């Protein structure tokens, strides 16, 4: 580190990754709390002999070497810093005064100072006082193992939904006609997916928490993780309580379907042409949001995952083990696997690919849906993503015609069904939506009057299409 390189750090003053301490005549003992916190978080710069405002007080010549020697000795003392570490501190002259500079790298270990774990945020160093905070640190460092790998020896195949296995096979086949799951039994699928393990502490073998959360019955999930749920809320009109709510306690595969149905019920569609193909921007974007909400949630904490629709924004939240706490943009977001076994299972179904695909999807399709506003991402103990949307249905991406007003409630489900199944007949739409044919015809008549849909073809063989398509 040179004087020229050090000056920008002093200008920035104290920050999440910069610690400035007065240490003129004797070593500031609180430096060890900062060292421990930096080791446990993302690393950081320490400058001894500087004030919080970035001004230089300096380290006296008489104490300079003593402070350097003390740092070297103490960092190798397991009674102070455990595990011990090596950090090189060096004197630097700036404005005619000496300071001591050292860079603390992020450690792969979880460290304590005098038996206490420390972490770092924008307010400085803080002690981890409860077991949940310490557990979060150990999980982040990979020392507590992944929560999803917790073994439950009492689980049997009867604790999983048989129909879900047939569904995951069908999805895997779409992506890969020769997928190995197609010839496997239900139990073999779980074993091959790493969802049956041996507990390294007890030696007992069993199905894991990941297996229960992805494929378990609702009763199974209640037994192994009673607090597990996803809360879907619509607060467009009633922001104090809600207009509509779905408390989802089923497995992750069923949860994804329930979330998509809820979103389709309350959020506007924005049709979009990609080449010659019509795609749903709403469904494409929200599918990625919901997969992230389910797959990358840290399930050890009882904080529920939630999805809330407001008048012109939607907010998804899930408990998180953050690698850094900050507000970031989509371009800055660095994905980290929270539940790699669960992520791999969904990848085998063709639902997700490598890390970062969801972010790229939002970047690609978002501008047409976000109404020119930015997605807000807060990475903290709670990961929060706020997505703006247009509260009315508007034609974009080359679709002709004008769609006036907002379609809400059941009639919107009918419209979405026609959008996604262009050419479907009345009976087919009735089966898809679960709405009686008589009621369905009333809704279609209203959509036709608004010039949103139209009937094409012969009376017996024709079907309904979005207008202008």
Account of the 3D structure:
Helix content is 35%, strand content 21%. The chain is α+β, with helices and mostly antiparallel strands. Helix 13 (409-420) packs across helix 15 (437-449). The longest helix has 15 residues, at 252-266.
What fraction of residues sit in β-strands?
15-25%
- Number of separate strands: 22
* Total number of domains: 4
The first-level CATH class of the largest domain is given as: Alpha Beta
- Rg (C-alpha, Å): 28 Å
N→C terminal distance: 63 Å
Mean pLDDT: 84
Q: Helical amount among residues, as a percent range?
A: 25-40%
The fold-level CATH name of the largest domain is Heat Shock Protein 90
The largest sheet is:
7 strands, mixed
What's the total helix number? 15
State the oligomer: single chain
**Shape by Cα distribution:** elongated
Low-confidence stretches: 393-406
Q: Biggest sheet: strands side by side, in what order?
A: 13-12-16-17-20-19-18
Helix vs. strand class: alpha+beta
* Second-tier CATH architecture of the largest domain: 2-Layer Sandwich
Quick take:
This protein has 469 residues and is of the alpha+beta class. It has helices at 3-12, 31-40, 61-74, 131-140, 162-175, 186-192, 209-215, 218-224, 252-266, 281-295, 340-348, 357-369, 409-420, 426-433, 437-449; strands at residues 18-21, 44-48, 81-82, 89-94, 97-104, 112-113, 116-121, 124-127, 151-152, 196-198, 205-208, 230-234, 244-248, 271-274, 277-280, 305-309, 313-319, 326-328, 376-379, 382-388, 453-456, 463-466. The chain has 4 domains: 3-144, Schlafen, AAA domain (Methyltransferase, Cobalt-precorrin-4 Transmethylase, Domain 2), CATH 3.30.950; 145-225, no CATH class; 227-403, Heat Shock Protein 90 (2-Layer Sandwich), CATH 3.30.565; 409-466, Winged helix-like DNA-binding domain superfamily/Winged helix DNA-binding domain (Arc Repressor Mutant, subunit A, Orthogonal Bundle), CATH 1.10.10.10.
